[in-house]
Amino acid sequence: xxxxxxxxxxxxxxxxxxxxxxxxxxxxxxxxxxxxxxxxxxxxxxxxxxxxxxxxxxxxxxxxxxxxxxxxxxxxxxxxxxxxxxxxxxxxxxxxxxxxxxxxxxxxxxxxxxxxxxxxxxxxxxxxxxxxxxxxxxxxxxxxxxxxxxxxxxxxxxxxxxxxxxxxxxxxxxxxxxxxxxxxxxx
Length: 187
Description:
Glutaredoxin; 5-stranded mixed beta sheet
C-alpha cells in the first residue's frame, strides 16, 4: 500500500513539474485534420461507357436474379457487405437515395459479398433495406462478379443506364445522387 501511495506522489510531482493541468503554460494544440485518401486508386476497371457485365446470383430466398433482368431501367448497382464498416456507415445515405429515386423508376440492386447469408438477412431486417439483394456467398476478392467489375473497394456503386451501359461509378451515395440528378430522363 505504501508503494502505491509513493508512486502516486511521484506521479503528481511529475505532472506539476511538467505543467500538466495548467492550461496557461500550454500553447493551443493545432486542430486535427482529417486525412484524405485519394480514392482514384480504388476505381474499378469497368468504367463509364463500358457495357455492364451481366451476372446471375441468388436473392436471399435463393431465386436467381440477373442484372439483364433490369434492362430498360436505370439501376443503382451497390456492391457491399454487412461486415464492411464503410458499407455500414454509407447505408443510411443509400437508404435515403433509394427513398428519393425509386419512385422515379430507378431500380436498386445490392450485391452483397457476405459469406454468411443469415448475417446479411439479419442486417437487412434490422436496417429495413427494402431493395433487392443478391448474394452468392463468395468472398468479394474471390467472387466472379467482383472480378467481372474489377472491384478494388467496397462499397462501390455503379449507375447502369437503360441500355445496360455504365453511366458512372462512385464510392458514396452523395456522389451517386449527383449522377442520378445529372440524368435528363430521371425526373
